[in-house]
Amino acid sequence: MSKQALIVVDIQNDYFPQGKWPLVGAEAAADNAARLIEAFRQAADQVVHIRHEFTSDSAPFFTPGSEGAQLHPKVLNRTDEPVVLKHFVNSFRETQLQAILDRHDIKHLVIVGSMSHMCIDGVARAAADMGYEVTVIHDACASRDLEFNGLVVPAAHVHAAFMSALGFAYADVVSTEQFLAARH
């Protein structure tokens, strides 16, 4: 089995019920992410946290230096776990993520976090294009209702559409239970 890392993407305060941009299922996704973080820690596998901040105070959420842009307490990093600050959807763009993965000879990325239709999609596709083996843990990701051309698309449908697309050609898409059972 290739060396793997858990990539915890944007599980930040603004995505929770009291935040500026709440997601449907954020609490349940964070609970599953926390279970995965613990499993990776117990196995001494790498955990990398991604934290998004926009570069402008006028951003709708994740404004620079705000409490909303901080990692959520359910998934706080340990001192030996890097936190990669990003300013774009793709966690590899203008960050140290690839250098961290290369330094630890990581070949397989296990991805959890938010939002399914943006940063999870972005990092999973980029990782696959870069040659990583990719697994997305679907029930450790969250999304929100979207609107297109007057049609409201419920968060569950948004999430399902993006997980389905990723599973078609970019990643193995499995549940927390499936992933943890396969590790034993």
Automatic annotation (TrEMBL):
It comes from the Bacteria. GO terms for molecular function: hydrolase activity. It holds the Pfam family Isochorismatase. Keywords: Hydrolase. Coiled coil: none annotated. Residues 5-147 form the Isochorismatase-like domain. This is Cysteine hydrolase. It comes from Pseudomonas rhizophila.
